[in-house]
User: Which sequence fits this backbone?
């Protein structure tokens, strides 16, 4: 976005494309759910991780959820099964 303020001399503000922040939050979830990712209203992302996972499984789950972010799956209307199999198949 380029914004010009009216002043004696024009002043230009050039805002870089916003880089989203990613918050990783450990929460109590049923063991059937390892984690999930959700965008928030500010354009940032929250990765919720089951707080009962082992350290290794936690890392794998974070990488899995980041793959959803990379694939823009949060904005995809495909069935969850299809989205998940797309990640499994690279
Ligand atoms: Zn997934």
Assistant:
């Amino acid at each position: 976005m380029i914004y010009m303020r009216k002043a004696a001399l024009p002043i230009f503000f050039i805002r870089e494309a916003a880089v989203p922040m990613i918050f990783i939050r450990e929460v109590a979830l049923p063991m059937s759910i390892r984690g999930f990712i959700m965008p928030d209203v500010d354009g940032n992302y929250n990765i919720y991780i089951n707080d009962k996972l082992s350290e290794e499984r936690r890392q794998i789950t974070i990488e899995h959820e980041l793959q959803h972010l990379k694939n823009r799956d949060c904005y995809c209307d495909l069935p969850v099964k299809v989205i998940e199999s797309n990640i499994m198949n690279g």
About this structure: The chain has one domain: 20-88.
